[in-house]
Amino acid sequence: MVRLKKGPSKTISIIDVARLAGVSITTVSRVINKLSTVKEKNRIKVLDAVKQLKFQPSVFAQRLATGKSNVVALVIPRYEGIFYSFYALELIRGIGTLCEALKLDLLLHLTDSRSKFNLRGVGGVIFADIIGNQQQVEEVLACGIPCVVINQYVSDLEVNCIAIDNVAGAESAVNYLISLGHRRIAHISGDVVTQAASQRLQGYKQALQKNKITLDEGIIFKTDYSRGQARLSAEKLLKADKPASAVFVASDAMALEVMAVARELGKKVPQDLSIVGFDDNPSGLYGPVALTTVRQPLVQMAEESVKVLNLLMSAKEPQKTKKILLPAELVIRESCQPIKAA
Amino acid sequence: MVRLKKGPSKTISIIDVARLAGVSITTVSRVINKLSTVKEKNRIKVLDAVKQLKFQPSVFAQRLATGKSNVVALVIPRYEGIFYSFYALELIRGIGTLCEALKLDLLLHLTDSRSKFNLRGVGGVIFADIIGNQQQVEEVLACGIPCVVINQYVSDLEVNCIAIDNVAGAESAVNYLISLGHRRIAHISGDVVTQAASQRLQGYKQALQKNKITLDEGIIFKTDYSRGQARLSAEKLLKADKPASAVFVASDAMALEVMAVARELGKKVPQDLSIVGFDDNPSGLYGPVALTTVRQPLVQMAEESVKVLNLLMSAKEPQKTKKILLPAELVIRESCQPIKAA
DNA sequence: CTGAAAGCGCTAACAA
DNA sequence: TTGTTAGCGCTTTCAG
After folding, report:
1. Residues 295-314, chain A: which have Cβ under 7 A from strand C?
2. Contacts of residue B84 in chain A, CB cutoff 8 Å?
3. Measuring CA to CA, which residue among B59, B133, B117, B72 is closest to residue A103?
4. What is the DSSP string of B42-74?
């Protein structure tokens, strides 16, 4: 009835190590887990045996025994406007690099709002944005699994979140344009299903209001973050009877597209049109006119999320939920100039 | 000596389900694993209990018991030229989506050549490119873990690989330019530490040779795939005494940069310079002149890799290694035209 | 068609 | 400081 142990191809376990080292499996376990209480001499014997047998502990057995898991699931909405972006890549890179360093297993889930995944076995979850999948967050929370949401400030849920102050960032961009004398300032917005885009729009409006500039809905263009729609918007904007002298664009990728369109139409940047983007995407540095933009601390946000989660995962007691708002900072380069005297 | 079972917060296990359903745990296990031999009546009782208790089997216990794992590790070199690209994102998306569908757990490893990861517990590995980390591949192979390498044709190792025929792709691009009458054709290459870039360079050279056009090393520019270096190369190229009439660029992102530089210098595309890129990056569609390019079946490559790996992982016997070469196809759009009569 | 029971490889009381 | 041993939750013989 016993499964045959096929002599040679058997996977080596802690028992083999113990036997070779001439100690008990407990001692081996202690060495592996760096639990101090092992005599140096034995420690070395065990370490030798481990090396000799090329032993690697079974993570499954470990997790089963401890009930703990060092698996972090990163959930990214399968939403093209977001996924195909500088933002997504920076996020994955930031989170991936830190997980690697912290020895956390990073599980990637590209999801739509319907998909369900087995939560048994994951130690913590990071949600990148929430687009229609708030329910997934609630599920995770209900299971008592540590969880942090990034790039989204969640006020109606008792959940940790780390977001960027898009409102203030947008406001500072528009204020800067105003300080240069611009009054007719357009906005090309991202997809307002994302919190980031809608907040940037809000910041834009707020800046105008505070400066007593009347809002003209006719020069606010809503897009899906794509370059295609940016191009369309830019064309409308530039061919209008009463063109704007400046434009605040919700992403650098789109801003660059606007810049390109302007040039194609024979307009000079910044002489004829001042442009501010958002992201601090390195692409903005190329080209003859470096893009003025708002820098988001994406990598910082990514790393912070892993740190917070890691803390949560190793904490004994449930922690107070943290809500962090990271500042976005205006980076002045060359794509804006004071408005020409009328 | 027994760990206390804290009554309420205990995680529910197969035992609870069995108890509630009034059957043995074996039966529950059979139902979960869809092993036919269960009376319909019992099946329903079990399913009810599962639903009622919101039972989710512990993947760790399952894997420990079966010795099988459905974890796929995706290893991506932490190499900026590659990582920040359309390519990387397409790959992650393709692999991520299919894993999600196949219920495979996708583990992401951003690695440098030195990093080691615990292989115990992963059922299969996908390597995206090999940049200095061939040793990692060999390690995986040595452990007998199913493994496939993508975007790299590996001939000196008994390993499955799926790559794109960059040589032929590049050749067809250059042949096309030649067919339009171009004779002085430049090349802006990617980072030749990557196989893709060096093969594209090779295809370029081959096409010239076959057409008895002498190679001019002076108009071959090697870059790190960045837009910055593309810009520099383009400037050199366009300001040269004897400029080329056409250029084949190793990526669309760089090709777009070249196009931008050309315009800034007052050159018209395609009238003054014909350009072919590589990737079929949607960005190439925007702008006034759609980019002619070579389409790589990236998503297909990504999906194929998961399929092959999945097969390998569920196969009883070791399989013959597969080496797949996917064709790349020229996509003619607007950025090239026949050379002007001299 | 069903159930009892032996593992899978490891951790953590507890005793020594 | 070390070893014994009872689980962790599941699968899988094997005997009913």
Report:
1. none
2. 89
3. B117
4. HHHHHHHHHHHHT----HHHHHHHH----EEEE
Sorting pLDDT into bands at 50, 70 and 90, what band is A33?
confident
Determine the pLDDT at residue B331.
98
- pLDDT tens digits, B281-324: 998 998 889 999 999 999 999 999 999 999 999 887 778 999 99
Residue of chain A whose Cα is closest to the Cα of B115: A100
Q: Which residue of B has its CA nearest to A99?
A: B109
Q: Which two tokens stand for residue A35?
A: 């639990």
Q: CA B250 → C1' C5, Å?
A: 63
Query: What CATH number matches the domain at B166-296, 3.40.50.620, 1.10.3720.10, 3.60.60.10, 3.40.50.2300?
Result: 3.40.50.2300
Q: Chain A contacts of B287, Cβ < 8 Å? A: 231, 260
pLDDT tens digits, residue range B56-84? 999 999 999 998 899 999 999 988 777 88
Q: Could you tell me whether strands A293-295 and A329-331 are parallel, antiparallel, or unpaired per DSSP bridges? A: antiparallel
- Residues, chain A: 342
pLDDT tens column, A106-116: 999 998 877 77
Which residues of B in 52-81 have their CB below 7 Å from strand C's atoms? 61, 64-65, 67
Q: For residue B270, is the peptide bond before it cis, meaning its omega torsion is within 30 degrees of 0?
A: yes
The class level of CATH for A71-164+298-327 reads: alpha beta
> Which of these CATH numbers, 1.10.260.40, 3.40.980.10, 1.10.10.10, 3.90.226.10, describes A14-66?
1.10.260.40
Full-model pTM:
0.91
